[in-house]
Design goal:
Chains A, B: InterPro entries: Met8-like, Met8_C, NAD(P)-bd_dom_sf, Sirohaem_synthase_central, Sirohaem_synthase_N. Chains A, B: It comes from Obba rivulosa. The structure is a homodimer. Chain A has nine helices and nine strands. With about 280 residues, chain A is α/β, with parallel strands linked by helices. The first copy, chain A, folds into three domains: about 15-125, Rossmann fold; about 125-160, Double Stranded RNA Binding Domain; about 160-235, no CATH class. Chain A starts with 11 loop residues before the first strand and ends with a helix. Chains A and B meet through strand 1, helix 1, helix 2, strand 7 and strand 9 of A and strand 1, helix 1, helix 2, strand 7 and strand 9 of B. Strand 1 of chain A pairs antiparallel with strand 7 of chain B, so a sheet runs across the interface.
Amino acid sequence: MADAKELSGGSLLLAWQLKDKRVLIVGGGDVASGRLESVLVADALVTLVSPSERLHPLTRRLIDASDRITYRDRLFELSDLDGADMVLTAIDDVETSRAICAECRARRIPVNVADIPPSCDFYFGSQIRNGPLQVMISTNGRSPKLANIVRRRIEKSLPEHVGEAIEKVGELRSKLRERAPGVGGELGKRRMRWMVDVCTSWEMEDLALLDDDMMRKLLDDGWENNRVPKLEDVGGRPRRDAASSPLQVRAAVLTSLVGFLAGAACAAAVMLTRRR
Amino acid sequence: MADAKELSGGSLLLAWQLKDKRVLIVGGGDVASGRLESVLVADALVTLVSPSERLHPLTRRLIDASDRITYRDRLFELSDLDGADMVLTAIDDVETSRAICAECRARRIPVNVADIPPSCDFYFGSQIRNGPLQVMISTNGRSPKLANIVRRRIEKSLPEHVGEAIEKVGELRSKLRERAPGVGGELGKRRMRWMVDVCTSWEMEDLALLDDDMMRKLLDDGWENNRVPKLEDVGGRPRRDAASSPLQVRAAVLTSLVGFLAGAACAAAVMLTRRR
């Protein structure tokens, strides 16, 4: 644990739950389209208020494609706040933005006003999404550019197929819970231990290969006998093409080969010189 | 942009702002101590309610060390909710937990009840903190174990000194805003461009070396002349000890040396055999 003095200057990072919650977005431009995408990911019911001539093409496309968006082709009205569980504004009108914020605070509705930090109960960080995996990077306002650089580095470091692996492990967990139901207790602990064993003994890319058949075999042979079969044991075939001979291995083989040839050439040269 | 259909099943990841907000924590055990640490990081004013005999040593240590915690040595009472901006419970009593959640929702106070997902307005993901940098990893409930594995991989992939670099760039930005003040407009854009140039042309480990003197030189020579001097130009000395000869380089030298010796030995052996 860190020193109590060091505990400051940060935010509380959260995964807010919006399933079937009502989110009001005021504005339809570039920033609003990003907000819209973020709350749709979280299964929110959205009302978007903006005159149609100010809609960004991305915003318009999302409105057309999703049945979870109620679109109001006009400027903001106070009654738009009725029933909202969260409010996000992204308009150029600072005065209206501040008024919306004040009204939200009076009604205790969490609010974010783009570009006006004091009018925000929360910020959006730099984000990564890969299937069910979500990662947020925040520099707590110090440097959006470095947040971006860090995001790209993290993206590169993520194991291949990580999103699929997480999806499949989630399915396996549900199947296990159906097979051995109940909350807590000894069984709950055994379930958790077995899932941890599966996750730590299989490679991420192998977990991503799991299909219904393999999951059934994994539960029949593995869970029932309290062991963790290998991918091949449940009928899977590893895709070890690039992965089993990664760049570093190939580079090492090449360097030692070059060294070998250089060494042989030198020795031969030395000995030939001496022979004369 | 992703397909509208793919936009679901996630959470809205947020950096919640708690500076001088009042957070109520009900419970004093292991989980509560983690919550306490997270909200102290975010500069919250905390009230913690728990009979002292149930306090975890870590919780007790934080209570003793921080002047931002009001401690109530007793069980939860309804009046504890008065004035709370956020409520976190981590107690074994499911009935009380659910009652607290219901009351919070009636009062529109964001609430998290540990271990009872339907009673949570938000979840805590797997987190990394490195100075002002915070990273959250969420698998949206699919697999806490894989979240953990991904967290460790991300931790390893983070550039060395990344926290210090972000801190220093934050300071440089503030100094620049003092030197060239004003919101938006051409000046704002020039400020942003110059900061981006600094962040992209300097290595993370060099940014971390910036001190007050170097920042002043960077602004005098760089900002004023619209260019980005190098670390050495502002009086810095790169710490390229381990970095300029990273493990991979050393490994490559070693492999080629071994190859060279093996090649020389082989050639010598062949020629000696032939000579006889």
